[in-house]
Hints:
Blueprint: H1 2-10, E1 15-16, E2 21-22, E3 46-52, E4 62-64, E5 70-74, E6 79-83, E7 89-93, E8 99-104, E9 110-114, E10 119-123, E11 129-132, E12 143-151, E13 154-161, E14 166-171, E15 174-180, E16 192-197, E17 203-207, E18 212-216, E19 222-227, E20 230-232, E21 237-239, E22 244-249, E23 255-259, E24 264-268, E25 274-278, E26 280-281, E27 287-288, E28 291-296, E29 301-306, E30 311-317, E31 320-326, E32 331-333, E33 338-345, E34 351-356, E35 359-360, E36 367-368, E37 374-377, E38 386-394, E39 397-400, E40 404-409, E41 413-416, E42 421-424, E43 429-432, E44 434-436, E45 441-446, E46 449-450, E47 458-461, E48 470-478, E49 481-484, E50 488-493, E51 500-506, E52 512-517, E53 523-529, E54 536-542, E55 547-552, E56 562-567
Parallel strand pairs: 26-27, 32-40, 42-50
Antiparallel strand pairs: 1-2, 3-30, 4-5, 5-6, 6-7, 8-9, 9-10, 10-11, 12-13, 13-14, 14-15, 16-17, 17-18, 18-19, 20-21, 22-23, 23-24, 24-25, 28-29, 29-30, 31-33, 33-37, 34-35, 34-38, 36-37, 38-39, 38-40, 41-44, 43-47, 45-46, 45-48, 48-49, 48-50, 51-52, 52-55, 53-54, 53-56
Amino acid sequence: MKTTRWAAMKGTMIMNNGKRNWIAGLAGLGWLAAWPAGAQAAAPSAMPLGAYAHPLRAPGRLATDGAGNLYVTDPAAGQVVVFDAFGRQIQARTGLARPLGIAVDQGGNIYLGEEATGSVTVFDPRWQPLHQLGRGPGEFGLPNHLALGQAAGGVVVYVSDSLACQVKVYAQGKRVLTLGGPGSQPGQFNFPAGLAVSTNGELFVVDQNNDRVEVFDPAGQFNREFSLVTRLGGMGMGSSGGRSQGITVDRTGRVFVVDTFQGIVRVFDAQSGYLGKIGTFGDAAGQLRSPAGIALDRYNRLAVASANNGRVQLLGLDSFVQLSASPARPFVAAGGAVSFSAQAGGPGPYRFQWKKNAQNLANSGVVTGADGATLTLAGVSPDDSGDYTVEITGPEGSLLSSAAALKVLISPQILAQPANQTVVLGSDVLVRAGAGGDDLAYQWFFNGTPLPGANGSALFIPNVQLWQQGTYTLLATNAVGSAASLPARLALVIPPPPPQIDWLKVLASGQLQLVFTGSVDYAFSIEASPDLVNWASLTNAVSQGGAFEFTDADASTQPRRFYRLRWAP
């Protein structure tokens, strides 16, 4: 009952049938009966539920966490993409060195193998690196698949190092055990691939080039093996394993093995009995092309990474819950509409109750379907932001889903346009615009090209130069839209050479006449001062033909006077 107590504490689902509390099935669904001891395993029914595609290029390995989030490695794109239980992309970790094996522990820490560095790094839930296994880079020839187990000291990490033909075992970051070695004897490997740990702690290893699965006990001792060469349809027709890769084991003990070449998933019981297959080769719903990774989430949905059609295929097994959301992102613009859906597979009937921030919703002007399979919110406002869940009740119990976070944002808009400016070469320039909306990010563009580091609502340009003449535009964005300002033109004026005072002459009237030379057609200000500190403008003049005269009628009334000529832009 240890698993039951953990699940109850985590709020997965707990049911009281009058005799005992129990959590049923790997997915924790209340209407799944606990697997009877000694019962014969049955082939699962599988219903195609759609697929995750964008922004995946060639998905490789998969992992799920306790909330039903799905982690997808995409080695060709150097990224890990995370989808929530409702199928919405919530994270994308990029810039990785061909990520392959991945696993997530109960605390949300992420274990990731990278082919190009030969390392496995442990990240916290915010993708901050904590440590690496072993010596770090170069610890593995090919960290192909990962699985997690539990021991008294905490998490045990299993890594299939395919090139070394070994499975390496780590606790607290240090290698504590090495399984296998090259060969075909029991306990040896020829390119080990997928790994899975069952509920009783057994380790299942896909021994790819030996076309078998080997099973080890929690101490690392070889227990048994079974062949991946099966007979189809009772016709005596042999079928090889097809370079099998990913593997997972459900709570009933059924073993699911990905057959990459044939585009199927083979299903066995825990002792090697072949139960059947899931999927076919192709691109239609439920079909697979070069599948590699596989994972089973808490809602009894089987996810299969289908590399050559660039998607992760979802299939509901037996009794399952399919959660979905539209739009397929956790953000929506104010005034828009949002819907959340829950499909319950298996014997019913089922009742639904949607909640916001753990409080039951009721139908209103905004909310419809609060007690149905599909919840719709129309004309949403920021007040509708929150965490949405659904409680599904069936004949045998109830399930509370994980939360779908929703944030309603006001779309960006430009409230004040930037102004055209004409300034002197070498001046300091400030270009401003005003924008409204929630959670805004800013980017200034110069002649249509983004300016690095120009990410505020105002743009400061010190000591402006000729090459900075042109148009400036502000783009304001958030998760639901963007708005661009009108372009503002910045023009520069080049100052003329300094003007010259050619001569001064005192007239018979006592007035002072000044003769200046300056650049043709430029305006100049004539200024006077009694002390070379305080200056006053006497007049402005435009040079005609390069020279002009000015007579100061007040010169005779001043004990002393200094003159200067300044360009008046």
